[in-house]
Amino acid sequence: MKETEVRDLFDAVEIQDFDVHPSGKTAVCSVNRGRNWELATLDLRTGRLKYVLSEEQSLRNPTYSPD
Questions:
Q1: Rounded distance between C-alpha atoms, residue 51 and residue 34, angstroms
Q2: d(CA 63, CA 55)
Q3: What is the mean pLDDT of the chain?
């Protein structure tokens, strides 16, 4: 079992409220890094997050537009 390092605890990210793109390759999701909820895209193949939007208020329940 891998031992958790202290710096790994500060990199912890909570992901909730996601919607998978029709292509099945990415998802848009709400991400919390400790302050508030931001919007990000998640590459479902690599697990990489790309932060898209951060505001003073938490951003929750993202969805892709049907258009």
A1: 14
A2: 17
A3: 83
